[in-house]
Amino acid sequence: QVPLVESGGGLVQPGGSLRLSCAASGIIFMIYDMGWYRQAPGKQREMVASITSGGTTNYADSVKGRFTISRDNAKNTGYLQMDSLKPEDTDVYYCAVGRARPFNIWGQGTPVTVSS
Fold first, then answer.
1. 42, 48, 52, 64: which has the fewest C-beta neighbours closer than 10 Å?
2. What's the chain's Rg over C-alpha atoms?
3. 76: which DSSP letter?
């Protein structure tokens, strides 16, 4: 059983929106902090957004005002709403959870392509 499964990635035009989901199973999701990361081949992994178990959020400067991280503990699911997407947002997006940094439970990733 895979603890975290991302979904919602795909191809979108510049200026468009996508909502990524991260479904957790087999773990007590509500006690974990959660983060969304992105990484392209040959590039360093970048933290996009994070949310603590208590709901405190943090964003990379590159996505502030465009992306929103949230969580629904009743559904064991985290989300990343991505608006005003840009070509430079193209990456594979991963969710991760943990009780402390660095996060130690990772999903398999979902690709996002922003292109006209």
1. 42
2. 13
3. T
Cα separation, 17 vs 31, whole angstroms: 29
Secondary structure of residue 87 in the 3-state scheme:
helix
Query: Taking a C-beta distance cutoff of 8 angstroms, is the pair 49, 62 a contact?
Result: no
Which amino acid type is present at position 76?
Answer: N
> Do the beta carbons of residue 107 and residue 55 sit within 8 Å?
no
pLDDT in tens, 28-70: 999 999 999 999 888 899 999 999 999 999 999 999 999 999 9
Report which residue type is found at 28.
I
CA distance 115 to 44: 21
> If 0-12 CB within 10 Å is exposed, 13-18 middle and 19+ buried, where does residue 43 land?
exposed
- Structure token pair of residue 35: 């983060």
